[in-house]
Amino acid sequence: MKLIILNDYDQVGEWAAKYIRNKILRFNPGPDRFFILGLPTGGTPLGCYKKLIEFYKKGEISFKYVKTFNMDEYVGIPRDHPESYHSFMWNNLFKHIDIKSENTHILDGNAANLVEECDSFEEEIKAAGGIDLFVGGIGPDGHIAFNEPGSSLLSRTRVKTLAQDTILANARFFDGDLSKVPTMALTVGVATVMDAREVMILITGVHKAFALYKAIEEGVNHMWTVSAFQQHPQTVFVCDEDATLELRVKTVKYFQVQGAEQHTRPGRKGRWRSCATFNLSVSILHSAHSLPNK
Amino acid sequence: WKMPTNKSVSKAPITQFVNCRILRDHKLQREDLWVREGRILDPEKLFFDEEGYADQRVDCEGLIIAPGFIDVQINGGYGIDFSQATSNVRGGVALVAKKILEHGVTSFLPTLVTSPPNIYHKVLSEVKVHSGGVEGAGVLGKEAVRKDVDTSSYVRLVLISGHDIQYCIPYNCCHLEGPFISLEKKGAHPEQYLRSFQSGGMLDLIETYGTLDNVAMVTLAPELPNSEKVVRELAQRGITVSLGHSVANLSQAEEAVQNGASFITHLFNAMLPFHHRDPGIVGLLTSDQVPQDRTVFYGMIADGIHTNSAALRIAHRAHPTGLVLVTDAITAMGLPPGRHTLGQQVIEIQGLHAYVAGTKTLSGSIATMDMCVRHFKQASGCSVEQALEAASLHPAQLLGITRCKGTLDYGADADLVLLDDAINVRATYIAGQEVWRK
Questions:
Q1: Distances (CA, A) of B291 to B158, B205, B226, B284, B395
Q2: Cβ contact, residue pair B44, A80, below 8 Å
Q3: For testing the chain A interface, which of B44, B49, B59 should be mutated: the one with the most A CBs within 10 Å?
Q4: Is A86 close to B44, i.e. CB distance below 8 A?
């Protein structure tokens, strides 16, 4: 895995947005070849979404031939509830870009048969040809999507009861009234995300630091489900300084140097700091593939 | 031929207003506005339910989109006097309706001043409720009395041209200011046609007006004997009762409100002045006798002439949510200076003032609605949102028609006014169609 360490939340959002943009451009999607993107919700990816909208408005990217699959959705709250993940995606991304509704997929928490809904979601991913890039976040308890501690690392899309901690954390979005907070959600499984060809996990903030430590410095463990990605062939973790606070200095230095080396071309001189790795990787991408005409 | 659409619920084209700031939830927000079939559309529903998108985009170039203005007191304009029984009453209303689009007014109540019964009989039978369109602003009716209206109760007429869908609401439409008003406070109304409730109340009304079918609002003086029954009966029928041209004291006014009155006609004008031991009708703004679930609204002619700015501010600060901007515009609005007819009297224009000819009694205003909104904002120091709501949301709340007018909520009629930051009208839309552009 790669661990990209940036200074702050904004840099993480920008880096991640550029990474997604460049991946899509490099893929060069068209009417017969869609780029399949997996997407999260929550505070962490907001900065990234804002940047993607900026890139779209500047004409640098189009979502016309992009399909999206969201990770999760609450069970039992109306689709147009301000806290539903449908509302989140509409307000924070879809309404600002040129994506077609039929190309977006979000689990329906009000489906008559929830199990069938989950199964057909898996089928839709398969029918689309699998996910090219799955973007995700991490919970303070190390969960990916709603795969709370104890979730099987081989799980697929299913109905999950939310952990008490998650319900408490969510109460602030429901007027502090615990009775209003949904107790169940539909979520992609750990294995569903592992099936993606590439995975990018965003982690920002000191409250995620311990989870990041457990995810990359300790072993693969179902109590910290993000740790499963140690076994994924193509994963990048993007975090800010605060999120590294529970890591060993050794780990941080290792990834900083490794990141610099991986992106240094033979013969180049000079030292590279971690935030420069992104700039270089972009320039490598640019030189390797000319950007399509606008 | 219209482009085939992509939606599953309706084939009608969808317009998306972009690059604009819309007035929603009492704030100007940077959001797009979506319109389909003359109504404001919920784009999130469109996206997820119908997998639809816009057929047409209108670039508003940063302008403000507000709900179209609603004028609940307008006596005429451009040479037309609603209180005259001409041979072409409908044509007259239609002319004014078209002209006031330039002021951002998309709905109005044609107002009749005190007149003899034959005038009421003639005019009321001719002026039908009609919704707006390219021909002009809509003459307002009231939604079903005491019930929620669903769209199936609207009669739909598709014009031969095939483009416009007009909704005819077969209910009320006019504002009758008088003749059951006080002699001492008649203002510019002709004395000989004033009346009282001598036959007990409703009988007098039916005798005078002929019909209550096309009536949305009645202004009366509550101190007149037998008025309580009238107020109650009118309110029950869903007709807004307004207090005005009256010498009522505060308790008489409060009783009228408790019986169902909900509006004050041009606050301060044609009523007893505020007195600290008996505030009169003005005291309703802060009265504690107003039932909890009800709001007393009050009309203000914010033309800088009818009310001193300091008085305007006092009223606004005392009761900001009840302020309704009205023009009380008369025949001469839009016309050059000189002499013109209003009701049964002659008035004279001098600059921005209109007097009863030969006197210094104000006869009504010639300010336009957008001028009133600008003046109100400047004089009161209120926000743009508050100024716009005083001309749109509040009159709609007064008439109980907020489900389709006065807001930009999903499902409301797409009657819009596009304004710049100085509140100058740049374009007006009715049912999503552009009906005037600067």
A1: 43, 27, 22, 11, 19
A2: yes
A3: B44
A4: yes
Give pLDDT, residue A153.
Answer: 96
Catalytic residue among B81, B204, B328, B413: B328
Do the domain assignments include residue A236? Answer: yes
Mutate to test the interface with A, among B14, B33, B48 (most CBs of A within 10 A): B48
The answer to the question of residue A286 being in a domain is no
Residue A268 lies in a domain: no
Is residue B213 part of the annotated active site? The answer reads no
- Say which of B45, B50, B51 has its CB closest to residue A80: B45
- Whether B409 and chain A come into contact, CB under 8 Å, resolves to no
| CATH code at position A219 | 3.40.50.1360
Check if the beta carbon of residue A155 is closer than 8 Å to that of residue A122: no
What is the rounded distance in angstroms from the CA atom of residue B324 to the CA atom of residue B143? 19
In a domain, A95, yes or no: yes
ipTM comes to: 0.82
* Residue B44: strand, helix, or coil: helix
Q: Please report which confidence band the pLDDT of residue B7 belongs to, taking 50, 70 and 90 as the band edges.
A: low
The secondary element (H helix, E strand) that includes residue A210 is helix A209-216
Q: Using an 8 Å Cβ cutoff, are B235 and B241 in contact? A: yes
Category of A169 on φ-ψ map: left (φ > 0), alpha (ψ -120 to 50) or beta: alpha
Torsion of CA A97, A100, A102, A104, to 10 degrees: -20
Domain count within chain A = 1
Spatial separation of the C-alpha atoms in residues A145 and A161, rounded to whole Å: 12
- Share of residues in chain A with pLDDT > 90 (%): 78
pLDDT value for B406? 93
Handedness of CA B380, B382, B386, B388 (dihedral sign): positive
Total number of residues shown for chain A? 294
What's residue B159's pLDDT? 24
B69-74 and B27-29 as β-strands: parallel, antiparallel, unpaired?
A: unpaired
User: Which B residues in the span 35-94 are in contact with A, Cβ-Cβ below 8 Å?
Assistant: 42-45, 47-48, 50-53
Q: Give pLDDT tens digits for A139-175.
A: 899 999 999 999 999 999 999 998 888 888 788 888 8
Task: State the average pLDDT over residues B163-168.
Answer: 32
- Amino acid B429 reads Y
What Å distances lie between residue A55 and A62, A63, A97, CA to CA? Answer: 9, 11, 10
pLDDT digits (tens, 9 = 90+) for B101-131: 999 999 999 999 999 999 999 888 887 666 5
Amino acid letter for position A176:
G
- pTM of the predicted protein model: 0.84
Closest by Cα among B109, B158, B146, B79 to B299: B109
Based on the residue annotation, tell me whether A102 is a catalytic residue of this protein: no
Query: Are the CB atoms for B65 and B23 separated by under 8 Å?
Result: yes
For residues B78 and B91, the answer to whether their CB atoms sit within 8 Å is no
Rounded CA-CA distance B423/B413 in Å is 22
- B384-391 helix and B369-380 helix, angle to the nearest 10 degrees: 140
Tokens linked to B312? 């305007």
CB contact under 8 A, A95 and B44: yes
Selection from B211, B268, B214, B258 nearest residue B232 by Cα: B258
Three-class SS state of A67: strand
Q: Give me the catalytic one of A73, A117, A148, A240.
A: A148
Asked whether the beta carbons of B415 and B405 are under 8 A apart, the reply is yes
B276-293 burial, b at 16+ Cβ within 10 Å, e below that, comes to eeebbbbbbbebeebeee
* Residue A263 a catalytic site member: no
H/E run at residue B125: helix B117-126
- Please tell me the distance from the alpha carbon of residue B292 to that of residue A203, in angstroms, as a whole number: 51
- Cβ pair A130, A36 in contact under 8 A: yes
Could you tell me the residue range of the domain that residue A145 belongs to?
2-246
